[in-house]
Structure formats: C-alpha cells, structure tokens
Design goal:
five-stranded parallel β-sheet, 8 helices, alpha/beta, 456 residues
Length: 456
Amino acid sequence: MINAKNQIYLMLLLLVTIVYGKKQLTKQRVCIIGAGMSGLVSVKQLATNLSNVEPIVFEKASDIGGQWRYTDSTDVDEHGLPVHTSIYKNLSRLNLLRCRTNSPKVLMTFPDYKEFHGENRSYVKHETVLEYLTNFTEHFNLRQYIKFNILVERVSQRHDNSWRIRTRNLNLNEIEVYTCDALMVCNGHFTKPNVPIIPGLDTFPGRTLHSHTYRRPEEFSNKTLVILGASESGIDIGIGISKYAKTVYLSHRHKKLTVELPKNLIQIPGVVAADGSDLILSDSSRIKADAFLMCTGYLYDFPFITDSSGITVTKGKYVHPLYKHFVNINNPTMVFTGLPYPSFPFFVSYVQAQYFLSILRGTVKLPTRKVMLKESQLPPGTPVTKAHYMAIEVLDYYDDLAIAAGIEPSSKPTKKAVEIFFDDFKNNPMHFKENELIIRDDGNVELYRPSNTCHS
C-alpha cells in the first residue's frame, strides 16, 4: 500500500515528467543550409546559447569550410554538382589572389573566438583560414549537428508556418524530408558567376572564363589577357597575372585608377562586343587577346526555395523583401545570412546569428510587417545591383544589430582598424598585403610594413 508521503512523491514525479516532456515537445528545430563560415557561426550561437533549440545543418560537401575548401576542379565536384568554391590555388578569399587573404586576420575572426593559428602575419593563406574554421568547429563540438553529403533540393512553407525541407543523400541517392520551425539560409554567395551578355563573344577564338573558374596565374604565361572588371577581384587578379603574362588589359567603364599598378597592366575602356579575335571597346577601338577573363562578380542564388517562401531575387542582386538585409519579412522564421558586400563576413554573420537568436528567445520583437517593408525599401536612385552594398557602412549595420541583440557593439579599435584597412586597400593595391595591421592589447591600432615579403 502506498502511504500518503509516497503518494505525494509520485504525484510530484509525474508532474515533473509532464512538464519536462512538454518542454521537450516544444523544442524548436532550426535548420541551417550550409556548413561554411556563416553556417558554422550560426549553429554555434544556437547550440551554445539556447537550451530549447535543436539545430540541424545540411552540408552538401563531405566536410566543413564552404568557400574556404579549395579544389583544383573548376567544373563539377565528386557528386557531379557545380564546384562551390571560387578560391584560387595561390589565393585566399573568394576572388582575391597573391598568396594571402584580402582582409587582415584581425578582421576575419568571430568576436567570441580569436584563436587564429598558423601564420604570424596579417594576411594569411586560405589554408590558414580553413584551419581556423576547423578549430572553431572542434572547439565548440559542432560536428554533432552537421549532416554531410546532404543536398537541400526544395524548401517550402507548410500551412502551420513551419518549413518542409526535402534533401538528397548524395552518397546513397536517397530522399529524406525534414520539418523545422525556423530556417537559416547560409549557402554562400560567391558560386554563381555573373556573366554579362557580350554580343559576338561566341566568335572569340581565345580562352573565355569567369573568375569563378580561374585557379592559377601561370596559365597565362606570355599571353595577352583582357580582364573585364576593375573592382577588387579584377584589380587583384590583374596584378597577380601580370607577373606571368605578356600584357594584361584591365577593361572597365570607370575613371582610370591613379594608384600604382604593374607596367604591363594597362587600363582600357570597357569591352562591349567581340568580332572574331577582336574585342571591341566602348570607344570603338579594338584589342586582340589570347584570353578574356570576366571579373564581373556573382549572383545570389537559392535554387531550393519556392514561391511559398515569399522571397524574390531580382537580377540575381536584390533579395527581397528582407528586414535588415536578412530577415524574410513575409516569413520571419527564415533568414539569409551574409548578403551585405563588400564587408567583413565573419563579423556580419556573427551579429546576424546573434540577432536571430534574440528573435527566437523573444528578447527582440520585430516591428509590424508594414514597418519592416517601409524600412527595407531601397533609397531613391539606388540600383538593384547595389541593394546590399555596404563597404565601411557595415560597422553601423553591425552596431545596429548588436545593440538590438544585447551584445557589445564594435569597439573603437575595430572601427579604427577597418578605416585604416579600407584606406590602405584602396590606395595601395600593389603592396597592401605586405603590410601588418595590428590591434594592440591597449587598444592602439598600428599599420606597418615588415621586412619580409609575400611568398607562396
């Protein structure tokens, strides 16, 4: 016979079981597409800061890293899918070469993980960045949340506002369907080339390629090359190839650059058409070349999303409607990380993850749909191709999200380092990677040129 004391104990045990079970049932499942830099920092924030979240990461590759995982292949991967990375052999980040990253490592770490090992220099090799991401993954035990060799084929919203994710196991060629309460799209934005339509280019007998499929400067030894585009990638690739090529023509529609450039890198007007071996420029002059390389950027690409998501991608450059450049206004349980450019993607993805974490916690309340739509409108005169353009303004963006999420805004030393970097990057494209940008423990920021030079 159960006495009164034991009966009370059993009733309390039953109550605890019911409450705990209810908590388990109400656990939020958050799916993350991609285990590159953005996906890793996103799952870390969710996994280590929320007890009632079940994160799942879908990664189509066999390991973490995304863009930072180099491959010699420029066509398809081991599964027959288009190659994801745009990193070159001697390169660093997505579209910049010459041995090292185009951003100093002090601006390439997550605010909550600074352990950047491998090289005692500011501008490091892409292998060093991948090692940093690997160490980050292991330090926070993130692999337990990642499903590798899983391709997300279709994302649709269900009638109860949850998300249906159809995936394919690339090793087994099997379909599996998941449902989740929230979705973070972290698939990267430097994979689908933006290839301009150039009349007559199909008649050009030389080699034609986009920077996405470029790997080695030696391929252009003693050749005459025309590079279309003088943004950061065009300039940097041109400088790198100039060491091997006979002549590099930098073709663009802007004012001529007045900074120091190699003697065999010659600026010309933009290419507007081709006529056999002649490339026709906007001033009607003609250039003959052995190869034509387009450094014309990339397009935002989400082939798995459906109309039910409520998202439109205009000209591959404008993802809308998004609140603060990443929250889906029509379905706020979906976010797109890392869209702002040029920026410091480690910082941006981190603060976006923190902001979304605060939404899930309920500590950040989104405005009404009407207010969000109004705030997300493009400023008058802004072309859709510049919809997510930020540059140095990204620090204001970071602080806006950080303050709302209740975390520390960017520090004065960080802001100073960003200002110094942008100035050096703009005015010293030939040598900025040789310099060292250091934030001292006392908060002082220093830029100096060491005696050592770049080597591969």
